[in-house]
Amino acid sequence: MHRWLLLAYPRDYRRAREAEILETVRDVGPAHRRTRVAANLVRHGLRARLGRPASRSVVAWAAVFAVVCGLFAASFGTWLAWLGSRPLDHRDLAAVVGQLYPDRQVSHLDRDDPPAVFLIYGHPLNEDLLSELLLGDGGEYAPAELTASFDQTPAGGLTDLRQRLDAAGWEQHEPFYANAYDCVPGSPRCDRASTPSDVTVYAGRGDHILAVELTADGATNLTLSRATPGVAYPAGLLAFALGTLGGWLLFGWASRRTEGRRPLVQGPAKVLYGVAMLFWAAPILLGAPLMLTHHLDEPHPRWHVPWEWLGQPTLSLPFLLGTVLLLLALGLAALPHRRPAARPLAGAPGPAV
Questions:
Q1: What DSSP string describes 263-321?
Q2: Which of 68, 133, 244, 351 could serve as a FRET partner for 212 with CA atoms 20 to 30 Å apart?
Q3: What is the pLDDT of residue 293?
Q4: Which of 136, 148, 109, 141 lies closest to 125, judged by CA?
Q5: Residue 329, pLDDT score
Q6: Residues 228, 301: contact at Cβ < 8 Å?
C-alpha cells in the first residue's frame, strides 16, 4: 500500500528517494499506526509537489487555487447531474391546476413542454445566446418552469389554498409576504402597516416544486419547476474532490516548473496568477454572501444551483479573463528550461586526455 501512496510525490522525487522512503517506513512502521504513516506520506508528498521548500506562502496560494478549482468543478458536476433529470411535463401542471381549482377557469396555462432543463430568455442555450450568457445576462440562465394564472383569486384565498395543498399531498412552507410595491422609508406615503402584500406559498411533492402567488391586485400565479435531482449531491461532492486534487497537482506542476527560473519568467508568472485569482475569487466573495442573505430572507424549497453562489454566469466576464491569464501563466511554466550542468568539485581530476 505504501508504494501506491508514493504517487503523491512528484515523479522525479519518487525516482530519487523511493527506496529510502520505503525503508524508513518499514523501520518506523511497528511504532506508529498505519493510518498515521499513510497520512504523513500523502501530506509530505503533496507538499513536495509544490517545490520551493523554503517558501511558506506557496502552500496558501496552492490551497486557494485548489479550493476554487474544486468549487467550479462541483458546479460543473452538479450541472451535468441536472441535465439528466426528468424533464417537465405540461400535463403535470394541468393536473395540479385541476386538483387545486377544479371549479375555476384558468386564464393562462402552458401547454408545451420546456425545450431544455435550463433556459435563457425561454430558449435553450445556443451559439446565438452564448454572448448573452457570458457577457451580461447570465442571471437569466435558470431551470425551466411551467406557469399558469387566474385573473382573479379564487374564493377562499390563502386558507382554502393551503387546505387544498394539504389534501393533494403537497408539503408546504410558511407563506411568504412581500410588499406589492416599494416606497421610500420615512415618506408620508410609505406606511408599512397599510402597504398591500403579495403572498407566496411554496410547496414540494416528489420531484416537483410548486409556487402559488396571490397578488395584491387579485390575481393568482402558479409556477411548477423541478426539484434538485438526488444524484446532484454526490456528483457535486465527487467533482469537488477531483477538482481540488486536480487544482493542487496543476499548481504544483507550475510551481516546480518556475522554481529557480529567470526573473523574466518567474515575475510575470506570479503576477498573472495573482491577478487571475483575484478575477476568480472576487465573484465568489461577492456572490456567496448575497446568495446566503437571499436564502435567509425567504423560504427556498430548492436552493439555488451551486454556480450562482459563485457569481456565475452573471459575473462570467471576470472568470473568463482570469482563465486567460491562468493559461498564459501555464504557458510560461511550460517553456523549456535548461538546467545548469553540475560543476565538478574543486581538486577533482579532469577528464583523461
A1: HHHHHHHHHHHHHHHHHHHHHHHHHHHHHHHHHHHS--SSPPPHHHHTTTTTTHHHHHH
A2: 133
A3: 92
A4: 141
A5: 95
A6: no
DSSP-derived secondary structure for 223-241: EEEEPPPTTHHHHHHHHHH
Going from the C-alpha of 138 to that of each of 121, 135, 194, 346, the distances in angstroms are 10, 7, 36, 66
Cell digits of residue 168: 393533494
Q: Tell me which amino acid residue 46 is.
A: L
d(CA 252, CA 62): 7
> Among 145, 143, 141, 144, which residue's Cα sits nearest to residue 315?
141
Global pTM reads 0.85
Contact 44, 13 (CB under 8 A): no
Contact at 8 Å (CB) between 318 and 283? Answer: yes
Task: Identify which of 2, 48, 46 has the alpha carbon closest to the alpha carbon of residue 21.
Answer: 2
Residue 113: phi and psi, rounded to 5, are -75, 145
Burial 228-266 (b: 16+ CB within 10 A, else e): bbeebeebbeebbeebbeebbbbbbbbbbbbbeeeeebe
CB 139 within 8 A of CB 314: yes
Residues in the chain: 353
CB-side neighbour CA atoms (13 Å) of 151: 2
